[in-house]
Specification:
Helices cover 18% and strands 9% of the residues. The protein is an alpha+beta fold and 88 residues long. It has a two-stranded antiparallel sheet with strand order 1-2. The longest helix has 16 residues. The protein is flat.
């Protein structure tokens, strides 16, 4: 319970050997460094993202994941459902 409310935590586990973790880190850096304004096929208000699929990009026991930018092309807006972390 937190502040008198029941909370259900969801876990996302990211595991890998040193080579796999470094590869994932490079993917994150590439995504962070991408200039969305220069991607012709990406509409305004869209966000660059990458799908990682089991058996192809991930192990067979993994679930599909999507990693992507929070800021939208052309506006920098975040998703409406985004709730900023409350820092106390």
């Amino acid at each position: 319970m937190l502040d008198g409310e029941k909370m259900k935590w969801k876990e996302i586990l990211i595991h890998g050997d040193p080579e796999g973790l470094k590869s994932f880190a490079q993917l994150l850096i590439k995504l962070a460094d991408t200039n969305q304004e220069n991607i012709d096929g990406l509409p305004v208000e869209a966000r660059e993202h990458i799908h990682l699929r089991p058996k192809f990009d991930l192990s067979e026991s993994s679930e599909e994941i999507i990693i992507g930018r929070l800021d939208a092309k052309g506006t920098g807006h975040f998703y409406d459902r985004y709730i900023e972390k409350n820092i106390r």
